[in-house]
Structure formats: structure tokens, C-alpha cells
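ok so for the tutorial part 2 we go from a plain amino acid sequence to predicted C-alpha cells. step 1 is just haveing the sequence, like this:
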Amino acid sequence: LVVVLGVGLVHNFAAPRYLLPAMPPLALLAARAAPRRLAFAAALLQGALAVAITGAEHRFFAAGDAVAREVLARHPEGGAFSGEWSFRWRMARGGWRFWPGEGTLPPGTLVALPEEASPPPRPDGWQRVEAVASEAGRLRVACAARGIGLYGDTLGVLPLGWVPGPLEEATVWRVPGEER
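step 2 — the prediction. this is what the C-alpha cells look like for a chain of 180 residues:
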């Protein structure tokens, strides 16, 4: 009870993994009180959900990597990027520099921002160059437009969601002004 209340009411980043210490005592209580068939059905359901969530996570991270690879291929001249997880990993390895969402960038700089991989707010006035989308999926662990965010309450109130369409999309922007 302390763990569940602590994560739900006090913790500033309530990711599901912080509930893990509460699971063994809850599982023992449920197994002791539940009929054998119900416990078996619950275990099967939990196993299926775990496999589905793991698959959704892998597809989400593969989509971030694929979108970053496409941006790198289309814009070998380089630029700046923001975002997290696999998108950040791939863009950094591709030679682009990380922009934390603060400070000014030189005019003419290309900036790649993902839709789902935790981008910062985009300043007004940037010129849209193009958007690159990943393959489609349905079970989501992150979708800002629908309030889905498995990794924390800052990303969305729902841990999972069913949304058709690209799993990740990145937009390449150009910082306006005269290039030096």
C-alpha cells in the first residue's frame, strides 16, 4: 500500500516500473484468495499483455531509429536535433548536434524534431522543410496527441493506446534569417 500510494501520489515521474516492489506481496495475496482457474487466467492475461507491451516498445524504438536514419540520409549536410530515446541515439551517431530546446541556433540551421520522442516546444517562425514518417502501427506506448505515455505522466495519462498510423514522425525545420 505504501509503494502504490507513494508512486501514485508523491513520485514526480510515475513510470510503471516503480510499482514493481509492490507486485510480489500483491501476487501472493491474489493467488491465495483467488480460485485456481481465475489465477491461471489472470497469469495468462498478464503474460499476453507483457508480450504485447514489449512488442509495442520495440516497434516504437525501431520507428524512432528508422525516422532518424531517413532524416540523416536526406540531409547529409547535418544540423541540430532534439528528442529522446532511439531517435536521439541515432541522430547523435549521425553527427547532428543535440539542441535541448533552449537558446538560439544560427540562421539556416536544419533542426529535426520527432513527434513522439519527447521533443521540446518549437519556436515560432521556423520554416518547415519536410516530414518523415515511420511505418504504421496500432498499439502505442507513446502518442502525445492522444495523451498516451507509458514512460511517465508528463507524456500522457494513458499508459497504452490503440491508434492507427505512423509510430513516429520527424519534421525537419529551418531556422529563419540570413545565413552567414
